[in-house]
Specification:
The protein is of the alpha/beta class. 31% of the residues lie in helices and 17% in strands. The strands form 2 sheets. Strands 3-2-1-7-8-9 form a 6-stranded parallel β-sheet, sandwiched between helices. Strands 5-4-6 form a 3-stranded antiparallel β-sheet, with helices on one face. Helix 7 packs parallel to helix 8. It is globular and about 50 Å long.
């Protein structure tokens, strides 16, 4: 399964694009709040914005789509989401590949490799790395940064060897993550997409040439219906 922000939208987590809720990038400048340059220019503002998002996540709950996916622990969950709602729903952490990192941790903005989990309900303010003195920042992937290589390589490997890829809550226009759809299609896999909007033909769905089944509707209703009664015991 490959998911985007639409998977968590019904849990009250704002999306970044599209028409679900209040897309964050219609309200904020991404280059000021989600880039290395933005952090260097005003680190306090960036941390305060992420802590606002962390507070919203602390009070969120997994929706029916998360819970339905958790009932199939054999599935691998490749997600662009930085929240932990899949894990809270009961998906084994080893089965979740966070392509864009996690908002539940801070890491050193320098090169020492320090990382620590934070309390989403009481996130700490801007502070220095206890190991090297550089600033700590959210452990997420910002604009202009590469995806974590180990996770990305594993995601590509999985998508190149599957028969069917379920895509939930993403318009598939953000690369390189969206290229996983193309990888699955090139390997002969069928793509089943669930989203509240029809697919953008300029994105990965249109360019992949995939065998594509498009389902339009909310993830919380459609994912449980799709997975009901299915067995994945032969997977992995």
């Amino acid at each position: 399964m490959f998911s985007g922000a639409g998977l968590s939208a019904e849990s009250g987590i704002p999306t970044f694009r599209g028409n679900e809720g209040h897309p964050l990038w219609s309200q904020f400048n991404p280059m000021e709040l989600a880039s290395a340059a933005g952090f260097e220019a005003n680190p306090k503002r960036v941390i305060e914005w992420y802590n606002w998002r962390r507070g919203k996540l602390a009070h969120a709950r997994p929706n029916a789509a998360h819970l339905a996916l958790a009932r199939h622990p054999q599935l691998v969950e490749i997600t662009q989401n930085v929240d932990d709602l899949l894990e809270r729903a009961g998906v084994p952490p080893r089965a979740v590949l966070h392509l864009h990192g996690t908002i539940g941790k801070d890491r050193c903005n320098g090169s020492c490799g320090y990382e620590e989990a934070i309390d989403l309900a009481q996130p700490p303010p801007l502070r220095d790395c206890p190991r090297c003195g550089a600033r700590l920042r959210p452990a997420v992937v910002w604009f202009g940064e590469g995806l974590p290589s180990e996770i990305w390589n594993e995601a590509q490997r999985i998508c190149s060897a599957l028969d069917c890829l379920l895509v939930v809550g993403t318009s598939a226009v953000v690369y390189p993550a969206a290229s996983l759809i193309e990888v699955a299609a090139a390997a002969g896999g069928t793509i089943i997409s669930i989203n509240t909007e029809r697919c953008d033909p300029s994105g990965a769905f249109g360019s992949s040439g995939a065998k594509h089944i498009e389902l339009v509707g909310p993830a919380s209703a459609m994912v449980p219906q799709l997975l009901e009664g299915l067995s994945f015991d032969a997977l992995r």
